[in-house]
Amino acid sequence: VMSKQYETVIGLEVHIELATKTKIFCGCSTEFGSAPNTHTCPVCTGMPGSLPVLNKKVVEYAIRTGLATHCNITRMNKFDRKNYFYPDLPKAYQISQLYLPICTEGYVELTGGKKIRIKEIHMEEDAGKLLHDATPDGTLADYNRCGVPLLEIVSEPDMRTADEVIAYLEKLRMIVQYLGASDCKLQEGSMRADVNLSVREVGSETFGTRTEMKNLNSFKAIAHAIEGERQRQIELLEEGKEV
After folding, report:
1. Which of 20, 55, 106, 201 could bond to 118 as cystine, CB 3.0-4.6 Å?
2. How confident is the model at residue 4 (pLDDT cuts 50, 70, 90)?
3. What is the pTM (predicted TM-score) of this model?
4. Are 131 and 101 in contact (CB under 8 A)?
5. Are 216 and 192 in contact (CB under 8 A)?
């Protein structure tokens, strides 16, 4: 029997693939479902000496999305390198915006009036796609998705239930689709959500230890994951263990 009442605290990072015809820093096509490695060039495969040129449309979509979610628009923008060594990232760094994201401090209003605050929205490039089941003796890499433009929309930890999370995602999807910035097809990966979740005792002012569940690709999977992770964390706390 649970002796204490627990509250779930959830924040989301939503990645949205933008509906541009070409990639964020080169002229390669962003078309989905083409033969592997046919939409690639020296820029998006990270060949030595190749230089990125920013796609103007990406900036326009980012600003539209920011204005539609009540954000401040950063006038002086810069990109940063996020270094990580993984086969889906041929340059060994991702071009993103850490210090000066294009949009800051917005919100999305849910039906019923609750506002989910948006911390920031930034522009970045997608990574390639690793295919682990295509061959018995290794992993194949498809770099078509490398350099496809993304918006990452980072919320504050303002959601408390799976229902609120789904409502927030549906509202966000509706806004972005209306703007024409993305088709937001979860099944094609053009809208992906990372769920940051912690639990705490009701009435507590401090947050618990959060975990991150990455790349969930349906509303059902998200609701399911939230319920499972909530239970897992509560059980650990009840047993006096650390999350």
Report:
1. 106
2. confident
3. 0.92
4. no
5. yes
Assigned token pair, 238: 């009840």
pLDDT value for 2: 55
pLDDT tens by residue, 103-125:
999 999 999 999 999 999 999 99
The mean predicted confidence, pLDDT, of the chain is 94
- Whole-angstrom distance, CA of residue 77 vs CA of residue 122: 10
> Which residues have C-beta within 8 Å of that of residue 170, sequence separation ≥ 6?
219
Measured N-to-C along each axis, helices 56-68 and 162-179 cross at an angle, to the nearest 10 degrees, of 130
193, 13 contact by CB (below 8 A): yes
| pLDDT at 136 > cutoff 60 | yes
What is the rounded distance in angstroms from the CA atom of residue 54 to the CA atom of residue 69?
A: 23
Q: Which of 105, 86, 103 is nearest to 94 (CA)?
A: 86
Residues 9-58: pLDDT tens digits? 999 999 999 999 999 999 999 999 899 999 999 999 999 999 999 999 99
